[in-house]
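Minutes, methods subgroup
Present: GH (chair), OT, SY

1. OT presented the first of two proteins processed in the latest run. Sequence and structure tokens recorded below as shown on screen.
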Amino acid sequence: QVQLVESGGGLVQAGGSLRLSCAASRRTISDYTMAWFRQAPGKDREFVARISWSGGATYYADSVKGRFTISRDNAKNTVYLQMNSLKPEDTALYYCAARYSDSSYYWGQGTQVTVSS
């Protein structure tokens, strides 16, 4: 079972940038679809971005399109989320997730992102 550890969260002012990292262990993620989700207080967990196993296809929620970029380095077994032009509404706990074929997602513990206005 793949283990995921997120890092890179923190407090940033609106308009600023952060880069989240998700380091995988126990299994190589080169065959896994990787994704980022987030959950704000009092809200359901929501999809943010997804990247195919090869990195050739990426998908984004409308709310982050043009501001966030998901990428992966299979040699480092790591996935990234570059977040630019951050807004207060981006404040949430960000989760990394891995999925092999049509299986369920494996989840990390999350990293907190707080954007001040």
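2. SY then presented the second protein from the same run.
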Amino acid sequence: QVPLVESGGGLVQAGGSLRLSCDASGSRFSIDAMGWYRQAPGKQRELVVTITSSGITNYADSVKGRFTISVGNAKNTVHLQMNALKPEDTARYYCYAHRTAPWPYDYWGQGTQVTVSS
């Protein structure tokens, strides 16, 4: 099990910004994609954004133009810059990492709470 170390999150007013970070540097296998999912109370976990090792990104329509994922300087780290936050962005955000070798496997972080007040 690779621990995904998440940081960031918190409480912010609508229109504000937050930055999340995730560190999967503890993996001994190559990580092929990383990203973030979120889950609001009473709702299913949903994609926020992923980025592959080749830099291909996939954003949820609801966050396009407001959220930006970037690769950190350290290997297997990513950052999520969240701007123009809305109350509907309130959720627990989970870091995600995927490897394809030696067999496909998904890793999940413990989650970090993001609360946007109106």
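Chair's summary of item 2: The radius of gyration is 14 Å.
Next meeting: continue with the remaining queue.
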